[in-house]
Amino acid sequence: MPFLFRELLLRVSWSIVSPRGNVCARPEKCRKSPPARRLGGSAVRSLDPSRSLHRATFLALVFGCFGSDTPAKARRRFRSIQPGEYDEADPESGCVLTGAMMQPAAKHAVLQTCGVTLLLLPIAGYMWQKFTSKVASQSLSSLLAVLWTYRRTDFRGFMKSHRAAIQKGKESGDYVPGVMNYYSLMSDLITLTSGPFWHFVPMIKGLSRDESHVRFHHTLSQYLGAGKDDKVLEIGCGYGEMGRQVAKISGASVTGLTMADAEIEGGNLRIKEAGLDDRCKIVQGNYHKTEFQDASFDKVFGVYTLKYSSNLEAVFAEMARLLKPGGKFLSYEILVTDKFDSTNAEHREYVGNISTCTCMPPLWPAEAMRSAAKKAGLVPVVEEDIGAVATARPWYTCFTNGVYQILVCPLLLPFFRGAETLRLLPPAFSDWFENLLVHPTVDFVRAGRLGIISGTVVMTWQKP
Ligand SMILES: C[S@@+](CC[C@H](N)C(=O)[O-])C[C@H]1O[C@@H](n2cnc3c(N)ncnc32)[C@H](O)[C@@H]1O
């Protein structure tokens, strides 16, 4: 750090720790025998503890955070103060406070500084871990990466089309244009901040988030029961991470079907990089009505995608058409539970926000899935909340362990609004940030805590 800056910091901190106010508590005595006062440390001992703490905290920040001096270096620096170097005259008492006299004060403050630094260490460690953790781990570094990567994005245009699409979806029941708009921006953003996982999984105790996802890949593959000669279709595949995992674990051939151009391009690139292009591919299409032949697949599955459909009966009829006799359809979905009460305003608010933020119709209850499957002639096999087991923490803890605390910080939005006004962030950044990042995250967690939605429901059906 340049010398001048260090010097400035030192002088500022010195003016804060200097015991001027306390010395003048008894000015008459002080005037009578200034030399005695000069030598004594009683002024220092009478320091007001709350003010001392303030000073010490400030010093901890100066020496600890700015890295100007370590506490040990600071101590050496204070000890080496020469008489006269930092002399100052108290205007009321006329007392001259010399550097030598102030040394006990400095010592006192430095000791406090060390104490407070020690207290601050765990916080500093926590912040350090958050700053340096993987970007794709929903952490503070993810937020910084978003600020940097999306600093020139047209959020105003994006939010305008997002709102228009929600309105259109509500009126017509067709959310596909909204899905395409949403994922044109959010595919990369979700992958940047959360990795290739665009769904919640049971957070297994003792395992990290990534390890819990790996465990989930195997669980899902087991429920699907695909073999190496099977032809599998993954509907609403995003970048197709789950399909690639199923292909790797089971040896099956997997076709992914999704809507947004970005997903198809990105997904096929990832298939190539994984060396799976002989068995996997991603194609564009709407799962309500696809172009595949009847009975094309042994297994069909969809992860977190039926929530985008406003017409489950059409989807299940299409799945029944695509499956070979004896074939299986698996859905892993986020659903409203029996605890959801549509007359409760709080319930309605959280669940409604989740839908509008991510441009989808209201979340379905399990009963709607059961009834649509029955209508399509599919026979239920398994229905299980795989997160409702003693070995797992709730699915939303992936948020509460990371990004949630950051996003609920009340200073963040005003800060971003200010940065937007100063043109440090693009227009409508804070609108997008609040409605498409903060809201769904917070609402998922709150609704999850109330138990009105579950993010870990597996349902399978067989075609007779
Ligand atoms: C939450 S993402 C899930 C992606 C992936 N299954 C995963 O869990 O990582 C929802 C996906 O469903 C796709 N989707 C939504 N509606 C669709 C439709 N009607 N037809 C095909 N794909 C659709 C979206 O484009 C997106 O890829």
TrEMBL record:
Keywords: Methyltransferase, S-adenosyl-L-methionine, Transferase
GO cellular component: endoplasmic reticulum
PANTHER family according to UniProt: HYPOTHETICAL LOC100005854 (PTHR44068:SF1), ZGC:194242 (PTHR44068)
Gene that this sequence comes from: strm-1
Protein name (record): Sterol 4-C-methyltransferase strm-1
InterPro entries (alphabetical): Erg6_SMT_methyltransf, Methyltransf_25, MeTrfase_SMT, SAM-dependent_MTases_sf
Membership in a protein family: Belongs to the class I-like SAM-binding methyltransferase superfamily. Erg6/SMT family.
Classification via Pfam families: Methyltransf_25
PROSITE patterns xrefs: SAM_MT_ERG6_SMT
Domain SAM-dependent methyltransferase Erg6/SMT-type, residue spans: 182-464
